[in-house]
Amino acid sequence: MSITVFGSVNLDLTVSVDLMPEPGVTSHATGFLKGLGGKGANQAVAATRLARCPVRFVAAIGADAFGASLRASLEGLGVDTDHLVTMPDHDSGMALIHVDATSQNTITVVGGANMAWPADGPDAECFEGCKVALFQLETPQNATIAAMRKARAAGATVILDPAPIAATGMDALLAEADIITPNETEAAGLSGKMPATFDEALDVARSLCARGPQTVIVKLGAKGLAYACKDGRSGKLEPFKVNAIDTVAAGDSFNGGLAAALAEGMELDAALRFASAAGALATTRKGASEAVPDRADVDALILKG
Length: 305
Ligand code: RIB
What we know:
Elements: E1 2-6, E2 10-16, E3 31-37, H1 39-50, E4 55-62, H2 65-76, E5 84-87, E6 93-99, E7 105-110, E8 130-135, H3 141-153, E9 157-160, H4 170-174, E10 179-180, H5 184-191, H6 198-209, E11 215-219, E12 225-229, E13 234-237, H7 250-263, H8 268-282, H9 295-304
Parallel strand pairs: 1-4, 1-8, 2-6, 4-5, 8-9, 9-10, 10-11
Antiparallel strand pairs: 2-3, 6-7, 11-12, 12-13
Helix pairs in contact: 1-7, 5-6, 7-8, 8-9
The structure holds alpha-D-ribofuranose (RIB).
Alpha-D-ribofuranose binds near residues 95, 248, 251 and 288.
């Protein structure tokens, strides 16, 4: 039994600012951080730290100096890099991130090697024995769909974090997912309606279930989450109270935690609490992959309540 994460790996260049930049304005940063990121890498780090089973990370780096440093960072964080491929004619992925004084962020991703996968995605062998497989959208849509199909064929539960949302082709992706985990902006992008309340998030989750997934979890950040399942179950979860300083990779920690919890057989309610605790703890630390919490911290926060 194992978890496979197929996704991106980026060099994150993060500047802290008091206010998000306005067009035409030059301002001084209040801090700077350079580190490992990418939704795929962050989720792989989270699954590796939180799961009680092996985790494979299937990803691509460029044939540049950044690629070697990203590989070393992944290895330093204990991620299995056996399925990390080098795309010869591409630069490594990069993300330019602003975090403001309220801990909110904006992210611009330069796909590079992450977007160089062939249409048939990674080999089916990457999903052999896989119980849960995790996907995001910083890889090409056709390769991601092909990979999701291979994961399903191997008997895995397929989780899709639909981030960043694409203007077209989302229905083909939803059709291949068992579980999707949009945040409120992504839920709005998928449904055409921004959920302002828990009840609106529940309505959006129910409507998205009709488009393929068995379970839709709408992450509402500091407001918690709402979820709905095709079998009629639905619910809300209040957030864990923490002192948030940087929300980058909170969603990724949530997804890695969800995969870990489902892989060890937790029921949905318990898995959502576990994932929420992981996401909350990630906001208490700066950076992306480096901000992902470990199992002991997540278990302790759940006990504390
Ligand atoms: O979800 C956060 C991540 O989004 C960052 O690490 C950045 O690389 C982008 O992929």
